[in-house]
Amino acid sequence: MSDVLTASRVPARLGRFVLRMFRPQIYVTYGVLWTLTLEGSAEALSGPSAHWTPSGATVVRAVSVVLALLFARMVDEQKDLEYDRRHNPDRPLVTGAITVAELRGAMALITVVVVVLNALVSALSVLLILLALGYTLFLVALERWSPRLGEALIANLLVSYPVQLLLSVYLYVSLLTGDAIDGDGRAVPLMAMFACAFLQFEFARKTEWRRDPEARLYSEVLGPRGSAAVCLALAVGAVALGLLLFGTRGLLPALSVVFPALGAWRFLVRRRPSGLMLPAMGFVLFFNLLCFYGSTAIAIGR
Description:
This is UbiA family prenyltransferase. The protein is mainly α and about 300 residues long. It contains 16 helices and no strands. Helix 6 (about 100-120) packs antiparallel against helix 7 and helix 7 runs antiparallel to helix 10.
């Protein structure tokens, strides 16, 4: 009887975990915008024969990206358990609010769902989304094989970032297999634009004035000013790539650079401890949103 009661509570426990550790209002918004922006931008850059419009396949890809991000969040929670026991004792896995078995069960369900959904789009879509999920799991094995990799922050970023890159490739190639766009070499700067937008937030959330070698901060490696400068440079890089790709239509997304600029001012001049993070997330969301509007305007103007 107790097992039945425990099992009945699992969805509620998972729901609380998602609300706390995944923050759907941010990550779902980001995943959906990421999908729409990449698809719209790819169409805008394609030839005159392109005919992309949001479709059922777009919904599948957006749901798959959001679920892949949640999958990665669940993996990270398990991977960092020993660290969190020392430094973040209020985390759900540490407190027992969720268990490893429950997270792994949810990960298995996510895998089944994305496979079934993407089977409706194309076999290549299934392969690429599974590759993204599989690479996330590979990172866990890699860090166990080489613990120093988990401690070397920059090296760890270099091997872990391809998860995000694989999701962008998944979106682009899945769209390509549907004959909605004509792919060309501009896919490379397009992927780089998204990479810069994401990485500036990654640096922002791990840049602080405080010194704590155990906190896994980029500011411990590059110094607070150096880490903040990298964050701002990545935002500028995303804007520059947008202008390169879209020309004068890229001026609207370029306005979103005010967010990281404000963050840099708050952090470097006002010395606000968390001055970078919220402006960085604002840049990610608004840059994607404005790029989508800009790419849509290009398509309409043809």
